[in-house]
Amino acid sequence: MKIKNICCIGAGYVGGPTMAVVAQKCPHINVTIVDINAARIAAWNDADLNKLPIFEPGLDEVVKEARGRNLFFSTDIDKAIDEADMIFISVNTPTKTYGKGKGMAADLKYIELCARQIAQVAKSDKIVVEKSTLPVRTASAIKNILENTGNGVNFQILSNPEFLAEGTAVQDLLNPDRVLIGGDTTEAGKKAIQALVDIYAHWVPKERILTTNVWSSELSKLTANAFLAQRVSSINAMSELCEKSGADVNEVSKAIGMDSRIGSKFLKASVGFGGSCFQKDILNLVYIAKTYGLTKVANYWEQVIIMNDHQKQRFSDNIVSTLFNTVSGKKITFLGWAFKKDTNDTRESAAIKVADNLLNEQAKLSVYDPKVVAERIYADLDYLNTRSEEENRSLLTVAQDPYEASKDSHAIAVLTEWDEFKTYDWQKIYDGMHKPAFVFDGRGILDMAHLKAIGFECYTIGKG
Ligand code: UDX
Ligand code: UDX
To answer: Catalytic residue at 277?
Structure first.
């Protein structure tokens, strides 16, 4: 089966870059990305590539090459569904905020809405691909809806989870460690799998394209994220022990990472992991395990989240205790708000919780992030509902550069590992601050010997 038209529902951090790369690598396939958010689609269509709704290194070049040729962004969802042979569902699946499974289970309402819309519109056979990360066995729910509410056409459901990491999305898509495709083991299922394999085979070596049954594919994505997050919580747990014992977590990471069985990646201690996926997916895994009555399995994975919450809490506690047990009325500067460098995404960023804790202690915050806009920062705080929107705006200011942000502050906290933070004129920053001037490096990126020589009082995560 040759695919000529692809539709992707959801023009977000996953759908946007993924489909842009598919379009770039498969000029013979028309790719239309649709979204209910008209402002987002308008931004994807903006002539000024600096205004794309998400920032990813290299993405502008990919969009420039394919947009208008075989890559289209639209709000006409019905038309795109109707024309497509293959439909990717890439809408968000946030943690439920209501009802059964509140605070844990994935909210599948958008997925279900998509399935119902596809069923209603489709007048020819379609392959429906789950791109969003979903709880294991969601494919059967989608199949059920499609088959019971559709127009009698045939649907094949595939699971094709996306493993890209933000900040390196384009590189990850161009050169993935593996592509995973799960589908039915029937003849029709195998044909659908092959149709998707053929698309990826335009740029991904065949041996890196794995095919499995649907349930393995769905569960592999949750498992991968759980293992990655677990590594971060494990090294963060050791960072606290390092601080107490006089060890240095970077030295420990290096020493263990050289063991090829452990490997060197994902061993950087931090103020805590963030991002739209890790916490959500582990909570989801915990919920699924509980649903099957596997309490020990659920408790085991829940510890990864508990450790991560602890890491954020102890970072802010340490700032308060170091600043002579009070930050009330003191200006504290945040360098970074994004959940990691090279992205403007702030979902679940550690900075949000650390800021909330410090605001509870009546600190005044000044934030500088190279890519995150002020509205986003305020929206993140308002969402917590800890204090009024007016209070958030009067207690926290967003600065346009690091020197303005740090002027007259008592302490600087590094929350994101942006490379540019290493290149600042730290003497100039020091000169503008109250003394003693403190630096709390939650990412372990600054040259502390240099900062100490200037006169800063320094704390680095995981250093005794
Ligand atoms: C990611 C992953 O796709 C998913 O695996 C994970 O479960 C949640 O986060 P992401 O692309 O980062 O999704 O989400 P987001 O940037 O929020 O994009 C989702 C888009 O879907 C939004 O632009 C939203 O407007 C759109 N959407 C949502 C629809 O078009 N229709 C809907 O019914 C719901
Ligand atoms: C993650 C997975 O890596 C990706 O495969 C999946 O598709 C989506 O979820 P993402 O959340 O975009 O990607 O970024 P990632 O690089 O995994 O970082 C997640 C968080 O962990 C960030 O806050 C990052 O700063 C933190 N982290 C990562 C650490 O604190 N230490 C590390 O060593 C690595």
So the answer is: yes
Catalytic residue chosen out of the listed positions 8, 26, 242, 277: 277
Q: Which ligand is nearest to the CA of 164?
A: 2
pLDDT of residue 288: 93
Judged against a pLDDT cut of 90, whether residue 135 lies above it is answered with: no
Laid out side by side, the sheet with 411-414 consists of 396-398, 364-368, 331-335, 411-414, 438-441, 457-460
The per-residue DSSP string of 28-53 comes to: TSEEEEE-S-HHHHHHHT-SSGGG-S
For tokens 């795109």, name the residue. 80
How deeply is 68 buried, as exposed, middle or buried, from its count of CB atoms within 10 A (0-12, 13-18, 19+)? Answer: exposed
pLDDT in tens, 75-115: 999 999 999 999 999 999 988 999 999 999 899 999 999 99
List, chain by chain if needed, residues with CB within 6 Å of any ligand 1 atom. 9-15, 35-37, 40, 90-93, 110, 113-114, 132-133, 276
CA–CA gap between residue 264 and residue 258 (Å, rounded): 6
Which of 364, 356, 250 shows the shortest CA–CA distance to 313?
A: 356
State the pLDDT confidence band at 393, using cuts at 50, 70 and 90.
Answer: very high
Contact 178, 209 (CB under 8 A): yes
Two structure tokens written together for 426: 């730290």
**DSSP string for 255-271:** HHHTSTTT-STT----S
**Per-residue pLDDT, 403:** 98
Mean pLDDT, range 188-193, rounded to an integer: 96
How many angstroms from the chain centroid is the CA of residue 179?
19
